[in-house]
Amino acid sequence: MVLEAPGEPLRERDLPVPVPAPGQLLVRVAACAVCRTDLHVVDGELPHTKLPLVPGHQVVGEVAGSGARVGVPWLGWTCGACRYCRTERENLCDRAAFTGYTLDGGYAEWLVADERFCLPIPDGYADLQAAPLLCAGLIGYRALRMAGDGERLGLYGFGASAHIVAQVARWQGRRVFAFSRAPAAQRLALQVGAEWAGDALARPPEELDAAIVFAPVGALVPAALRALAKGGTVVCAGIHMSDIPALPYELLWGERVLRSVANLTRRDGEEFLALAPQVPVRTQVEVYELGEANETLARLRSGDVRGAAVLRVVSDEVETSKL
Prior knowledge:
By secondary structure, the chain is of the alpha/beta class. The chain has helices at residues 36-42, 127-130, 136-146, 160-171, 183-191, 220-226, 266-275, 293-301, and strands at residues 24-34, 59-63, 69-72, 75-77, 97-98, 110-114, 119-120, 152-156, 175-179, 196-198, 208-213, 228-236, 257-260, 285-289, 308-312.
């Protein structure tokens, strides 16, 4: 499924099986979860998109010739030489390349990926259930770490990432408060361990020690700050967000912290994928076929997905053994 111009529907195209360069793996895709960042890419809200582009950055598949199962995440390549890469901050590399954005991704039967940035999928996860771990899980985990160790955690926007983070937070002994305008999302939050769920702009029953804003809605930032106790942290977890409205300094005063999370590192991936089976994280997925990618993106845009949407990718025309 190919994006040929921003704002246009994806087109189904027959492409040649990509040829891996030295250091790359050829991966036969089994499943690819659908992320809100895919919407930002398809809608043209992110600059410098590779065109034409195969989107998708939560990929699970098998390495051609070996059968090893790997995950291909958002971070697809870094230079390894800049000051960020040299100080364990490769997520900030200015030359970084990203799966499904500046590199072709997983809305396809095959892709190539840098072997160094592929992650082993933990045992016990089927392909469809593992796919959301590759971004919803990884970015959520990084955002949770950046939020500190406060007990009372607010999650704004209860979709794919939040339903994973809530499980990890509860396992860590935290109390979770969920914010969403969607009644179905509020029900899901309570199901996975939140003790309270309410409207996105509502005041929680207690002050929060930390909050993570997953929804790309700038108006939620002042709301999260209002709900925050002194010394708390609000983390903006998305790669794109509408403008944050003007806010009075008193919302930030009291040593409150407002910060963003950018991308992920390989260490994030290794740590989270080792942690997920311990919790254990259980992803709730809605499954669609690859050819339904446009309809799936439309459902995600309208907020009709409960948990995570995953594209099931099936390829019988080309056998791995022949490559």
